[in-house]
From TrEMBL:
Keywords for this protein: Membrane, Methyltransferase, Transferase, Transmembrane, Transmembrane helix
InterPro entries: Methyltransf_11 (IPR013216), SAM-dependent_MTases_sf (IPR029063), Thiol_S-MT (IPR052356)
Domain of life: Eukaryota
Pfam families registered for this protein in UniProt: Methyltransf_11 (PF08241)
Methyltransferase type domain: residues covered: 86-185
GO BP: methylation
Alphabetical list of Gene3D superfamilies matching this protein: Vaccinia Virus protein VP39
Transmembrane annotation, as ranges: 26-45
Official protein name in the record: Methyltransferase type 11
Single GO MF descriptor: S-adenosylmethionine-dependent methyltransferase activity
Coiled coil (UniProt feature): none
Taxonomic source organism: Nannochloropsis gaditana
C-alpha cells in the first residue's frame, strides 16, 4: 500500500546560480578536452621522431620567414664569412640570403639532420645568387664524419639549443676547423639565474622541448667559456648578450659573437 503523505518536490533553480553552475561545467569540459588533446599531441610528438621532424620543419619555416630585424642582425654577424664554410643546422636556409653575391666564400656545406627541411632549403637557395658550390648533407653536428681541418669558417645560429650534446658539437667544430679559422654564432639562451623569465623558461622547457624538436633554454655562455680551452691551442672567443627582436619574450634573451681557432696559422686566413 502506498502511504499518503506530504509530497517532497525538488526545487528547480533557474536563476543566476543555476546559470553559473552550467557555465562552470562547460568550462570544465572544455578544459578537459583541450588538456587531453594537448597531452595526446605532445605524447605522439614525443614518441614519433619522424612526425616531430616534419612538424618542426613546418613550424621553423613559418617562424623564420617573417623577421626582417633579425635578418639584419644575422647578416651583420655573417658579413666576414669566407673560404670553405660549414653551417650546422641551416634549417630553412635562414642565413643564405646573407651569403648572396659573396665571392669571399669558396664553398658551402650545410649539415642538417632534419630531412624535411632539405626541400625547403633547396627551394629557397634555388632563387638566390650564390657564387659558390653548395652541398647539403644529412648529418649531425656531434659526429659529422667530415675530414679534419677542412673548413675556414663554421656558422651556427639557433642550433646549440636543439642539439643532443652541445659540448660534443663544439669539439667537432674544433676538429673540422683549420687553425686560424673562425666560428660565427647566434643563439637564444636562458635568462640570468634568479629572473622570473628563467623560472618561466625552465618550467615550460620539458613541454617546449617536445613541441619544438629538442629546443631548450641553455646557459650557452658557460659552454663558450669552456670552448676557450678547446683542443690543443684553444679559441679566442668574443660574444655579447642582447635581447633579440623576437615575437615571443621567452626567446628574446640571446648571445652572439665569433671565435678564432688559435694555432700556427692564426690570423692568416
Ligand atoms: C631552431 S632551428 C634553426 C635553423 C637555422 N639555423 C636558423 O637560424 O633559423 C635548429 C636547427 O638545428 C638543427 N639541428 C638539430 N640538431 C642538430 C644536430 N645535432 N646537428 C646539426 N643540426 C641540428 C635542426 O634540424 C634545425 O634545422
Amino acid at each position: 500500500m502506498q502511504e499518503d503523505g506530504p509530497r517532497h518536490t525538488v526545487p528547480v533553480h533557474r536563476g543566476g546560480k543555476g546559470r553559473m553552475t552550467s557555465f562552470i561545467k562547460i568550462v570544465s569540459y572544455l578544459f578537459f578536452v583541450v588538456t587531453l588533446s594537448l597531452a595526446l599531441a605532445l605524447g605522439y610528438l614525443r614518441q614519433n621522431p619522424e612526425f616531430r621532424h616534419r612538424w618542426f620543419a613546418s613550424v621553423c619555416t613559418c617562424l623564420v620567414s617573417n623577421q626582417p630585424e633579425q635578418h639584419a642582425i644575422r647578416c651583420d654577424l655573417l658579413k666576414d664569412v669566407r673560404g670553405d664554410v660549414l653551417e650546422l643546422g641551416p634549417g630553412p636556409a635562414t642565413n643564405m640570403e646573407c651569403f648572396e653575391g659573396k665571392t669571399s666564400i669558396t664553398s658551402y656545406t650545410g649539415i642538417e639532420p632534419n630531412v624535411f627541411l632539405h626541400e625547403v632549403f633547396r627551394n629557397k637557395t634555388a632563387h638566390l645568387s650564390l657564387p659558390f658550390p653548395l652541398e647539403l648533407k644529412t648529418l649531425e653536428g656531434e659526429h659529422s664524419g667530415l675530414p679534419d681541418e677542412m673548413f675556414d669558417t663554421v656558422v651556427f645560429t639557433h642550433v646549440l639549443c636543439s642539439v643532443h650534446n652541445a659540448t660534443q658539437v663544439l669539439a667537432e667544430v674544433d676538429r673540422v676547423l683549420k687553425p686560424g679559422g673562425r666560428v660565427f654564432f647566434l643563439e637564444h639562451i636562458a635568462s640570468p639565474p634568479g629572473s622570473w623569465m628563467r623560472f618561466f623558461q625552465k618550467t615550460i622547457e620539458p613541454v617546449w622541448s617536445i613541441a619544438l624538436d629538442g629546443c631548450k633554454f641553455p646557459d650557452t655562455h658557460l659552454l663558450l667559456e669552456r670552448f676557450k680551452n678547446q683542443g690543443k691551442e684553444g679559441f679566442e672567443v668574443m660574444y655579447h648578450f642582447f635581447d633579440a627582436p623576437m615575437p615571443l619574450a621567452i626567446v628574446k634573451p640571446h648571445l652572439m659573437g665569433h671565435a678564432v681557432k688559435k694555432g700556427r696559422e692564426a690570423g692568416e686566413q
